[in-house]
Amino acid sequence: MKRYDIVIIGGGPAGLAAALAAREQGIHEVLILERDRELGGILNQCIHNGFGLHTFQEELTGPEYAARFIQRVKDARIEYQLSTMVLNISPEKIVTAMNREEGLFEIEAGAVVLAMGCRERSRGALNIPGYRPAGIFSAGTAQRLVNMEGCLPGREVVILGSGDIGLIMARRMTLEGAKVKVVAELMPYSGGLKRNIVQCLDDYGIPLKLSHTVVDIQGRERVEGVTIAQVGADRRPIPGTEEHYTCDTLLLSCGLIPENELSRELGVMISPVTAGPVVNESLETSIPGVFACGNVLHVHDLVDFVSQEAASAGAAAAEYVKQRPGEDAEVTLPVKGKGGVRYTVPSMIRPGRMQEEQVIRFRVGDVYRNQYISLYVGDERLIHRKRPVMAPGEMEELKVTREQLSGCPEGTELLVVIEDK
Amino acid sequence: MKYDVIIIGAGVSGCAIARELSRYQLKTAVLEKEEDVCCGTSKANSGIVHAGFDAAPGSLMAKLNVAGSRAMEALSKELDFSFRRNGSLVLMFDEADRPRLQELYERGLKNGVEGLRIIEREELKKMEPGVGPEALAALYAPTGGIVCPFGLTIALAENACTNGVAFYFDQKVTGMERQEDGWRMRTEEKTYETTIVVNAAGIYADLFHNMVSETKLHITPRRGDYCLLDRTTEGFVKHTVFQLPGKQGKGVLVTPTVHGNTLLGPTAIDIEDREGTNTTQAGLDELREKAARSMEGIPMNQVITSFAGLRAHEDGGEFIIGEPKDAPGFVDCAGIESPGLSSAPAIGKMVAELIADRLHPAANEKFCGTRRGILNPAVLPKEERARLIQQNPAYGAIVCRCEMVTEGEIIDAVTRPLGAKSLDGVKRRTRAGMGRCQSGFCSPKTMEIIARERGISMAEVTKSGGASRIICGTSKDNLQEEKE
After folding, report:
1. CATH number of the domain that residue A205 is part of
2. Candidates B50, B239, B259, B313; catalytic one
3. How far apart are CA B99 and CA B109, in angstroms?
């Protein structure tokens, strides 16, 4: 059986950045296992620009952003295997994988980094009633068909959900010659970035209907139309508000779900809020030596933050392999969100193991204007920052330093809250 | 060429009859209006092999249900499809209903169902720990089972096909005329001649029957909505859990599937549209409420798809099998609603014997009653799987990550007899696209494989035949036209 210090599951932006960071920490035996035909993950189909503003201070397309990381991985001679599916990870960190050339094989890993990304919520999971014809796509599937296969999935399009992929695809379909009739969003606010609403909908005159959903799909063989209705505060359709749209295509951009089937089988503790692993400051899951980063951990808006997070996970995996014990590692401080803060990553911090500065990422559950984000450590309010707008579609972050947390007694709670003053 | 027998409909009944007829030296053909077998009622049902206590004693339904259920296990081995006897429970929620539960028990005894028992809450709770708090007692039938309805139908069809039965797809029968010695049948583009017609047209069977007989039938499409839950829910329910039946059939059930999913359904809504397989919000809401009574804490957040099927409910509520008095040579197999799937093996035998009695055909000595299903490499021991991939690397390439389906399986599904032509065809044969992402990731890859193996373009690949093309052109194609 082959042995690697670190095996990284997934060669998308998270896996690439984790591998590079691990190598920078001096770990040589790093292996990336990628199920698709090339490295780069979903970035390969994101041919629009807007990637890399934070990382490279320039606007890149998805493939360009990926290419930079791929080049670094190649320069660093980090090993990777493509078209390789991981079937199982055992608690002893034996990774079972499969591909055409080697068939079924096992690898012993010193540490594992989970970087499998996420999938889109399907029509079935949304339980939209109606027929089940051709022409219903998740936005990402349509994106792959258009951007990678050169196919046009449809000519008259209705989009449900204003997540970023849905917004991007509204523009893409328009540019490719289709007519996007409307984007309907169940919530009273968009799930996407503000800049995408402006650049992808407003600039093309595509209407966004908030508090609306699809209540029926017509067409037996191919989509012939959909019915959209307004929803009330309970998110249930309001009778009498139905509007019919003739279309041949319905795209769905209604949320992303971290792909944690492998993690679950491995026995990793999963957060019911993020559907990703519960992690500590080192982005280590409930199983020692198994780390998680990127969209498998929690769904991100910007790849730049995925890269940052993944670099931390890669570095932490390297530390784990080198077995350098931290000082007073036994002190663990739980991190929690409250009052509109849906979750935090990490959900615990061991000051003895943390870096100089620790990023706490979180999402809010509603739109908040002119409110404050506060971090309480025990009873003490450590951070208090005014935010003009916070929305569920934009990930927030706070930073704490090791110094601020040193000396905290075991169990002191770190609480992230939204406050009106 | 004149056929001895033409069967209208490639659902489970039609395919079971075709397979039984292939035991004889008969020229048999199946005409199917869709692009594949198993496209109507047979594809959207509960996948249950009923023990046989529901139907009235002495009825054809009762007889064929019990016979079909008994035959299913051996058949599943001969034809290599998934079947499991998981036992079924019929829940009683109200003490006042006890006489009805008792009646069901006695009916089962009369029908010859083995091992039936009425169990009280304590034992019920032990057998099915998640059962709802209202369930006071239940009828337990250890012979109740679950089957993959696609697996069963496709296996019957493939076996019939390799034994010489011809299948013609996209052949919607539009008319039928009596001839001196048989029938002439018209489809949209062709005519066929045959000595005997078998009417296994499911939801349309009354239309064909009424073309040739003065004793009219009337079939009502009875829609049933279903919700399918992810395989992550495997173990949530062990038995098939029914509720004490009412007028509208057996009511909502909660059951495991042979593949480890959990299935809820069906509702029972009488409609007029014979193609009305659309789910409705009201139907799905009703389903959720009713199912919640049977089992506590159904993880509805694990729903991966919902769908609807139509039962072919004839006014008499009984299977109609045989020749109408005024139409010799026309054999009905109509009104095949639940327990039609369970009865299929017995229906096949009955109809084939009926035809054999008329035509006195010689036995088909080349008949081979076994068939190998699509190889699922995941069930092989590690070494064998490794050897398989070495021989055929396509078995090392996962296409559908949710159901872990390899390219090898998909190629097999497309290239075998009566192979899949569409995404749904591949899905029903291999489960590719049937998992939690509902083909989001694998559909472009599966389309590529179908296009390559069938020698067609990506644009010609359909979801389910006909006009169900997945894509409608190439990027910017209409913009270029404008320029020109």
Report:
1. 3.50.50.60
2. B50
3. 15
pLDDT for the residue numbered A60: 97
The CATH number assigned to the domain holding B117 equals 3.30.9.10
Q: Are residues A367 and A388 in the same domain?
A: yes
In a domain, B138, yes or no: yes
Name residue A188's amino acid: P
A119 and B437 in contact by Cβ < 8 A?
yes
B227 touching A (Cβ < 8 Å):
yes
Cβ contact, residue pair A131, B278, below 8 Å: yes
The pLDDT of residue B478: 86
CB contact under 8 A, A148 and B468: no
Please check whether residues B299 and B390 belong to one and the same domain.
Answer: no
Cβ within 8 Å, pair A132-B441? no
A98–B contact, CB cutoff 8 A: yes
B contacts of A155 (beta carbons < 8 Å): 472-473, 478
State which residues of chain A have pLDDT below 50.
Answer: none
From chain A, pick out residues whose CB is under 8 angstroms from the CB of B401. 35, 85
Instruction: Give yes or no: residues B115 and B228 share one domain.
Output: yes
Specify the pTM.
0.95
Query: Which of A120, A121, A132, A296 should be substituted to probe chain B, the one whose Cβ sees the most B Cβ atoms within 10 Å?
Result: A132
Question: What digits encode the pLDDT tens for the residues A324-383?
Answer: 665 556 799 999 999 899 999 999 999 988 999 999 999 999 999 999 999 999 999 999
Contact status of A152 with chain B (Cβ, < 8 Å): yes
In a domain? residue B232: yes
Domain count, chain B: 2
**Given CB atoms, is A150 within the 8 Å cutoff of chain B?**
yes
**Is B50 noted as a catalytic residue in this protein?**
yes
Regarding whether A330 and A319 lie in a shared domain, the answer is: no
Is B429 domain-assigned?
yes
Q: Which residue of B has its CA nearest to A42?
A: B441
With an 8 Å Cβ cutoff, is A149 touching chain B?
Answer: yes
Smallest CA–CA separation between A151 and chain B, in Å?
4
Q: Kindly list the residues from chain B whose CB atom is less than 8 angstroms away from the CB atom of residue A261.
A: 232, 402
Q: Which of A281, A308, A324 is the last residue of a domain?
A: A324
- Which structural domain range is residue B91 located in? 85-144+219-310
Judge if B399 and B306 occupy the same domain: no
Q: Are A176 and B398 an interchain contact pair (Cβ–Cβ within 8 Å)?
A: no
Look at residue A191 in the predicted model and tell me its pLDDT: 86
> Can you give the pLDDT at residue A405?
94
CA-based R_g, chain A, Å: 22
pLDDT tens-digit series, residues A280-315: 999 999 999 999 999 999 999 999 999 999 999 999
Q: Give the pLDDT confidence of A373-401 residue by residue, as tens digits.
A: 999 999 999 999 999 999 998 899 999 99
Instruction: State the pLDDT at residue A127.
Output: 86
pLDDT of residue A325: 61
Residue of chain A whose Cα is closest to the Cα of B393 = A100
d(CA A297, CA A310): 10
The count of structural domains within chain A is: 3
Q: Which residue segment(s) compose the domain that A310 sits in? A: 1-119+256-324
d(CA A177, nearest CA chain B) in Å: 5
Q: Is A222 on the interface with B (CB under 8 A)?
A: yes
Question: Cβ B436–A125 below 8 Å, yes or no?
Answer: yes
Q: Is residue B245 situated within a structural domain?
A: yes
